Amino acid sequence: MTFRLKADYATVVKLSGSWMPNPYGDTIDMTRGENNVWSVKIALPSPEIYTYNFVVDGVAVNDPQNVLVQRDGTRYLPMLLVPGERTENYGEAVSRHGTVSHPWYDSKILGMSRRLTVYTPYGYEASPKKKYPVLYLLHGAGGDEEAWISMGRTAQILDNLIEKGLAEPMIVVMPNGNPGQAAARTLNIPEKQMNWRAPENQNAYVRSLCEEIVPFIEKNFRAIAKPEARAIAGLSMGGGHTITASILYPQLFDYICPLSAAGSATPEQIAALKKAGVKLYFLACGDTDFLFEGSQALDKTLTEQGLDHIFFVSDGGHVWSNWRLYLNTFAQKLFK
Amino acid sequence: MTFRLKADYATVVKLSGSWMPNPYGDTIDMTRGENNVWSVKIALPSPEIYTYNFVVDGVAVNDPQNVLVQRDGTRYLPMLLVPGERTENYGEAVSRHGTVSHPWYDSKILGMSRRLTVYTPYGYEASPKKKYPVLYLLHGAGGDEEAWISMGRTAQILDNLIEKGLAEPMIVVMPNGNPGQAAARTLNIPEKQMNWRAPENQNAYVRSLCEEIVPFIEKNFRAIAKPEARAIAGLSMGGGHTITASILYPQLFDYICPLSAAGSATPEQIAALKKAGVKLYFLACGDTDFLFEGSQALDKTLTEQGLDHIFFVSDGGHVWSNWRLYLNTFAQKLFK
Predict the structure, then answer these.
(1) From B69, B96, B97, residue closest to A76, measured CB to CB
(2) Nearest 5°: phi and psi at A44?
(3) What is the DSSP letter of A213?
(4) pLDDT per position as a tens digit, B30-79
(5) Would the CB atoms of B220 and A125 count as touching at under 8 Å?
(6) Among A4, A101, A283, B154, which one is least packed by beta carbons within 10 Å?
(7) First vs last Cα of chain B: how many Å apart?
(8) Which B-chain residues 184-243 have CB contacts (< 8 A) with chain A?
């Protein structure tokens, strides 16, 4: 495929892409052509969602021709979806789409009103008596309540899995895991927060999740309010939140999925969790992830304590291509 | 205020901003400083929401330090809110926030599943028996179902007006007015559309709005299904849709607000509308808008036919600063 950018007065134009061996450093030179349109042709990378940008005289530039943009933290990046088996659930479902909504909940623990992202499956509005299980899906450091919807393609993955009959219809709740932030991309939020940096408040967000968000969802959405209808999953920092929530509230979630997790658990904590009962413990990590050793250690503890679990090891590192793969995989195992 | 951009190898760096006399051509030169950080200091423009970008060796570059980005059609632009009386309702409300959701409706008329943006006011979830009036709010050419939420600040304006007791709690429905588009920023939507370009289908979208979207909303949301609880407003092309809907379905909406409208009505059509009954006809346009003469003509027809109305004339042209002002103004007059 060919990338093009019109740049009349540029001296050097390059292409940077997340498919390159070093996504944070590699670039390919582009060539000036007619009418100062710079271009470069590349071999189509393997099926996946990638991001890319141009570099014009040393400055990152987005593609004015591409309306598909993903936000990763503070960076807006043009997106490229290469079709194939790996990505077949990442585009829009054929005809059945769930609803993405952005309600706010009042957090007494964190001292502010905060925004959530909630996915309700196709048919939710039309079936006013039906109740659904809920997956709580947590982002990593640098992310927020829009990360799983944007980079993670959660709505598309769930729409496709449910449409194909591969996953149970479920509600997915994506909170904001930064205790000092009310919501992504907002102006003039009041600053009357608790001191969440104090050591005694280190689990304030996990407490708000389990004691405020779960009840808010079960009051305001048609959620089945039982452990066997609650799943928790999270990536990186959110994997740590997942492990912490499972330890502090062992009765709350029957499905626990730490992904590329920044977190650990002691043998005693896993023993207590086993006693509380777990229907699925799905641990996932890439084999070149800088957190892989931690996942291996947790796998070992789970094995030693006899807690039946899946250790899903993929290629690659601490990247969204893995987190989309993990969601697409474990979502098929929930609530069954 | 000072704008800054690090650009190590650039030759010329400029600033472009929507507050400049000619927003599409004017730029200000920036100066290279220490560590190749280019900067320029400007006098703070008058209170309003602006967009801006850098121009590096002739190429538009966004501000990597600004996470507040608005999308206008295919362009993503960093946003600048200058505080003041004019903008006091454009930032987040103090504590009461409505919910923005993105449900899909099935359009038999347009032959596809299509996405809407829906705002429900604070308290909607907590008051499961309360019903609300509905404003249908339509975008212009080049826009889509995200335009009013992004550029228009609809959620913030309604949150603030309702929190201050200046507007009735209401649902706001923002459809996608492009009959060939299922939704903004989506991949691989099926292409089994009707031929909406055919002359006999010229009002297909307005028909879908009145015959499909209104019933969808009144079935799936707690909406008051009466003309006195329905308002329609739209800007530019959406102002034309507003006028067309009021003519084709004179019984449907009691509140009609064409904004900088691309559309017209005959004396006979206005006479029929008057007969059907209208509680508010709010016509708005900027005095330098290229469509101002059309609004003056419509004002004249409304006066001649004795249809009581407001002709709200603002400074300026065909721009979002005016459409935010109009929404902030007419929303206070609805359903009272």
Answers:
(1) B69
(2) -60, 125
(3) I
(4) 999 999 999 999 999 999 999 999 999 999 999 999 999 999 888 899 99
(5) yes
(6) A4
(7) 42
(8) 184-190, 220
